[in-house]
């Protein structure tokens, strides 16, 4: 049971590392970028740190971390829906968020109390 949880958390952590290394594209919508108090590149560096923390949280406490990841994915989905041409990526993230919610429910069932 622990193996899928590790893969989930490692995937989220690697995504954060890619953002920190500058290998992930900046998909910040212009509407969101105008609201930011910092440069979009700096914002994406902060996003990378948050994604790595979320991945570690899933590994440590999946019943909580999976809900954090699902909420984070919905924030990403809203951002992507504001950018023309990224609807397919937003749809993919809907599926990922449903998977995160399923992981949270399974973790709550199997977590040691």
In short:
The protein is mostly helical.
Summing up helix and strand content along with how strands pair, one would put the structural category as mainly alpha
Q: Count of DSSP E strands? A: 0
State the domain count: 1
The sequence of SSEs as H and E is: HHHHH
Number of alpha- plus pi-helical segments:
5
Can you describe this structure?
The protein is mainly α. The chain has one domain (2-110). Helix content is 81%, strand content 0%. It is built from five helices and no strands. The protein has helices at 2-21, 30-35, 40-60, 62-81, 87-110. Helix 3 (40-60) packs antiparallel against helix 4 (62-81) and helix 4 (62-81) runs antiparallel to helix 5. The longest helix is centred in the C-terminal third of the chain and has 24 residues, at 87-110. It starts with a helix and ends with a helix. 20% of the residues are buried. The mean pLDDT is 83.
Any chance you could write out the topology, listing elements then pairs?
Blueprint: H1 2-21, H2 30-35, H3 40-60, H4 62-81, H5 87-110
Helix pairs in contact: 1-3, 3-4, 4-5
């Amino acid at each position: 049971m622990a193996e899928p949880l590790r893969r989930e958390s490692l995937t989220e952590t690697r995504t954060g590392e890619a953002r920190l290394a500058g290998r992930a594209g900046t998909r910040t919508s212009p509407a969101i970028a105008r609201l930011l108090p910092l440069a979009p590149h700096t914002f994406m560096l902060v996003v990378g740190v948050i994604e790595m923390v979320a991945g570690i949280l899933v590994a440590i406490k999946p019943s909580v971390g999976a809900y954090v990841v699902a909420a984070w994915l919905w924030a990403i989905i809203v951002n992507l829906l504001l950018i023309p041409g990224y609807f397919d990526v937003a749809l993919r993230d809907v599926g990922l968020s449903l998977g995160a919610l399923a992981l949270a429910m399974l973790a709550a069932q199997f977590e040691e109390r």
